[in-house]
Amino acid sequence: MNSIPVMELHSSTENKVKVTQTTCPYCGVGCGVTATVEETVLGQKVTVVGDVNHPSNYGKLCIKGSNLADTVGLETRILQPMLGRKTQALDTRQATDWDTATDLIANKFQQCIEQYGRDSIAFYVSGQLLTEDYYVVNKFVKGYLGTANIDTNSRLCMSSAVAAHKRAFGEDLVPASYNDFEHTNMVVLVGSNTAWCHPVLYQRIMKAKEERDLFVVVIDPRFTATCEAADLHLPILIGQDVPLFNGLLQYLYQNSHADQSFVQSHTQGLDALLESSQPESDIEAVAAKTGISLEKLHLFFEKFAQTEKVMTLFSMGVNQSSRGVDKANSIINAHLLTGKIGKLGAAPFSMTGQPNAMGGREVGGLANMLAAHMDLDNSKHQALVKSFWHSPTIATRAGLKAVDLFEAVESGKIKAIWIMATNPVVSLPNADQVKRALDKCEFVVVSDICKDTDTTQYADVLLPALGWGEKDGTVTNSERRISRQRAFLAEPELAKADWWAVSQVAKKLGFSGFEFENSHNIFKEHAQLSAFQNADISKRSEVENFRYFNLSGLTDLSESEYHDLEPVQWPLIQKGQSESAYAQLFAQGQFSHADGKAKFIATTAIDPVHPTDREYPLILNTGRIRDQWHTMTRTGLSANLSTHKAEPYCETHPNDALKYGLKDGELVEIKSAWGNCVLRAVVSDNIRRGQIFAPIHWNDQFASDARIGKVVNPVVDAISGEPEFKHTPVMIHPFYTQWQGVFYVREGFEHIVKEPIENTVWWTKIQTAKAVRYELADRRRFTQTTEHLKELLPFEDESFEWLNLEDQTAHISHSVVLQDGQLIASLYIAPKALLPDRDWVASLFKRERLSAMHRKALLAGQAMSMGNSEGPLVCSCFKVGKNRIIDTIKEKNISNEKQVTACLKAGGNCGSCLPEIRGLIKACQAEAIE
């Protein structure tokens, strides 16, 4: 690689330009990006593009990465420490300084230890932290406070994979690399909408498919964007992965497709597995359990058996389950039986959800782990880490995992909690329980970049953290690749790195070992611990505590070498090590268990903890969408990312919609035994009968009642503690309102309307280029709307010009507010079919002055010409809508997505929309046949 990490340039106009190579802060693909900051007379301009030299993405970015520059503003930031809580009635928060804030934290922690013991303190952290932050907080909690009550939101996405890896391999190891997908002959995507959740890796797989004979299988209850280009879709019943892969294993064994030499030399436990999976030895029984046809099962089993190089990528659909660990192990079992592991193009592959979930695993981020891949319940590992850290008191038993941790907060067992870089009031299951817990907790500290989230309002101390672009350190992606995340923006006001804040508190508690000056100091110590009493695989017999995780080659990095560090995979035993040296782990059949062998894990199928019943007859499945990330605190700020799926919604099958009286596009209420929420119904045959799907992203800042987490049951996997996000029994029914409407207000005026908006019974907020859009609904009678308009549009100054149109018999009310000829706000209340085209209204806010014709059109609620309506947005990069794509497909008789790109550019940048375009082509072709 020849990239220059940071470079300063001067343009011909003498504008100062700074170019920095860094890493995307979103999913576990770990894409490299090039950030350019230009200082102009109008201020700072930031642009972000893919880093063409980074081996994870080679310049490609998904739509979220392409719009990173939209998320680096300071509008929503917390920029100085604050004391006091915020309630609906009162915001008591007051600004303070760091010294006062850290004094208070240290004193409260000391009081808790003296009065209640070490386990009365807890931390809940995040895969959004850099490895250096993660390392320091784990050292502090486990090695100095002496408790393991520190867990991470990575518990919610990949802890089942961690446990499965440890059971099978003896260590938490992803044995392959992205490069393997380009050399395999079969890719099996299990519980992963890869096209939307890991788009850049998906595009690599699709490119490989174009270049050679690559058979792609998708195992998913829904027909997702990922299925569009698949050769085989297995629409499995939710939760039935273990019977499927046990059935595959039995088929492989019975038909002599086992690699006997590999099994005998490098594995143990097959007999117990064969016995436990005996119920799946009958393929008809597997079909009945999984809901997959015999024809499709035969094809899948045969293809897996006959293909030498198979990559099985699994993600949240496997992990987020009360049987997630067994699901992952059942996949690994099939690879071990056939020896499809440790070879180029053949391996099971866990795809993580966050940019540094893997880095958190390296430093022992989970409550049941120690740093450097060592075990918390292993006395020798405890002694090793304690010796290295010179720690006074090291944790000796596993701490509370995420769901249990917040239950302990509510019960009063935990008296103080510090939450970092995560929003558990939205993201955890049974999320209202988290609200109750934090409300009752004696002392809550929150470190965040956002001043107002669902979680920050409960903070007694709110600390301003550095955000992406400001903080400096490393992250590790899903293929074990460490990359630098470099700062290219100045630290705003009093915001500080999370490692710095923790170090300050540690020192005030009298602990040494936290005199870190920068992230380089921390990384060196992290690397040194990985190498401490460790060795290369060739010398594993010489050490008692062998771990594949080993950064020996980075232990003596100088500060400049750390600054310039290029992306590198571990284990890294020597500087300058070949890129391919450990790309495929286990090439020599050496696993991390003491005997060097992998273990087959006996897995059995069991019924869900909470089955459906008459009261809750449907299964709720939750997940991500293409253009949003986690709880939207960043992506929700981007107008470009708010256009594809603008509102919180739930997918239901047409037969279920008919059965429960639902209409496409109308509001529905989802209820479970744990909570309820209100979403927009999307009727689709992409989902099986008896199931509904809802995205996880919306929070109370972007919608009145769309936190799906409060509906999700709190059941967890008994081994990993990972929650069951894919199977919650629910009921669904219409949510009746008197009227619905759409309201736009220009940026800068939002504060005027915030309270009236939040007094409506239902609303959702959508960012557009120059205005904020609200979809509204209320139960007040239409005749009461006039009063409501006055509340909603409090523009009483004489400088505002009002336009009004009202027809109570038709239930129509239109109001438009202008100032100096510029559109300030507009409110439309009408039957749903008569509400205006949203993109058209938003476009008028971009105009400096509206013409008379525009005014008339606005008041009428219809554009002067609606013939060019784009329809729902498909390509966010080039703003190409569904209607234009369909018209072009029909007009030009298009048969593949490349032709659409050639005509409209759609799909020609990040490629995230290509699966949707393929679906539109198929739909048009089917329509033509009919």
Automatic annotation (TrEMBL):
In the UniProt record, does the keyword Oxidoreductase occur? yes
Give the signal peptide as a residue range, or say none if absent: none
Q: Which UniProt keywords apply?
A: 4Fe-4S, Iron, Iron-sulfur, Metal-binding, Molybdenum, Nitrate assimilation, Oxidoreductase
Which CDD domains does the UniProt record give? Answer: MopB_CT_Nitrate-R-NapA-like, MopB_Nitrate-R-NapA-like
Q: Which cofactor does it need?
A: [4Fe-4S] cluster; Mo-bis(molybdopterin guanine dinucleotide)
Per the record's keyword annotation, is Repeat included, yes or no? no
Cellular component terms (Gene Ontology): membrane; oxidoreductase complex
Q: Where is each 4Fe-4S Mo/W bis-MGD-type domain found? A: 17-76
User: One of this protein's GO BP terms?
Assistant: nitrate assimilation
* Pfam families tied to this protein: Fer2_BFD (PF04324), Molybdop_Fe4S4 (PF04879), Molybdopterin (PF00384), Molydop_binding (PF01568)
PROSITE patterns tied to this protein: 4FE4S_MOW_BIS_MGD, MOLYBDOPTERIN_PROK_1
InterPro entries linked to this entry? Asp_de-COase-like_dom_sf, BFD-like_2Fe2S-bd_dom, BFD-like_2Fe2S-bd_dom_sf, CT_Nitrate-R-NapA-like, MoPterin_dinucl-bd_dom, Mopterin_OxRdtase, Mopterin_OxRdtase_4Fe-4S_dom, MopterinOxRdtase_cofactor_BS
GO MF annotations in UniProt: 4 iron, 4 sulfur cluster binding; metal ion binding; molybdopterin cofactor binding; oxidoreductase activity
Annotated PANTHER family: NADPH-FE(3+) OXIDOREDUCTASE SUBUNIT ALPHA, RESPIRATORY NITRATE REDUCTASE
* This protein's name: 4Fe-4S Mo/W bis-MGD-type domain-containing protein
The record lists the organism as: Acinetobacter bouvetii DSM 14964 = CIP 107468
